[in-house]
Predict the structure.
Amino acid sequence: MDMQTSFLDRLFDSGLLIETGVDGLYGRSGTFEDVIAAFERLIDRFGGADGAEAIRFPPGMNRAYFEKSGYMKSFPQLAGTVHSFCGCELDHVSLIKAMDEGQDWTGEQKATDIVLTPAACYPLYPTIAKRGRLKQKGGLYDLQSYCFRHEPSNDPARQQLFRMREYVCMGTQQDVTDFRQLWMDRGVKMMAEVELPVEIDVANDPFFGRAGKMMVNNQRDQNLKFELLIPITSVAKPTACMSFNYHQDSFGVKWGLELHDGAVAHTACVGFGLERIALALFHHHGLDPKLWPATVRKALWG
Ligand code: AMP
Ligand code: ZN
């Protein structure tokens, strides 16, 4: 049995994760949620004084915004769309018949105006652009959302529905690259407080297809993405538990985000993979948080 399956089995056996019959789609126990809540308080402790505006979107976003974002150009393999039955009674009869006969009943489902949120910050850019120019100090936002990515796996750290906590900064190139560096330093300090081993490395997003290879090279060459990695199910290939992304002015141009003087805004976002961080804690300190080192418990629960 590989390390991923055995860790997943131990998580099921302990009740921390609850099987649903779909790889990457799990229930979470109260204990698991308590660890995430405690870690989010630690995030607040590090970032709370910055005065970010807190915004919570549901895990679905406006399909029109999603289309404009270009997500389907870069990551069609990961996207999840919400479809619903929109037919008449006759169509309903055919649907039930297809289901009864074990045939595909989903063909007639129609796309709704909602798609599943692929990253917590996607609904933010059009929302802020609609408000008009940013204030002189730019914009700083605190987000958290369940996100969907179609990447079924038996690695418990690769889920299809998982939570991302994010801070997003909008400002000049200097503002947003300083923000990204600040959070890289904070990320290292936070993980040291909860006694998790980390490394930071340059990274890339999984751009689709042959054209995607160029995007990957460009992202890496320009140091646009860094990740904070922690070993969870593999020491050789540690898992990205935080990401630090500099989008240059690409979202500013796309969405018309303007600084107070009308210049195009640069943006950066910092994402915490909350399930991955909880799993890293369970992997390194054991499946029962009551037995974790007192220092780690103090960092998380005071
Ligand atoms: P990304 O937008 O890919 O940089 O994702 C932001 C953060 O979300 C990553 O650093 C991970 O910690 C987390 N994450 C990404 N994909 C998954 C996944 N499939 N399952 C759990 N966490 C994920
Ligand atoms: Zn983001």
About this structure: The chain has a mean pLDDT of 97. The CA atoms of residues 57 and 215 lie 28 Å apart.
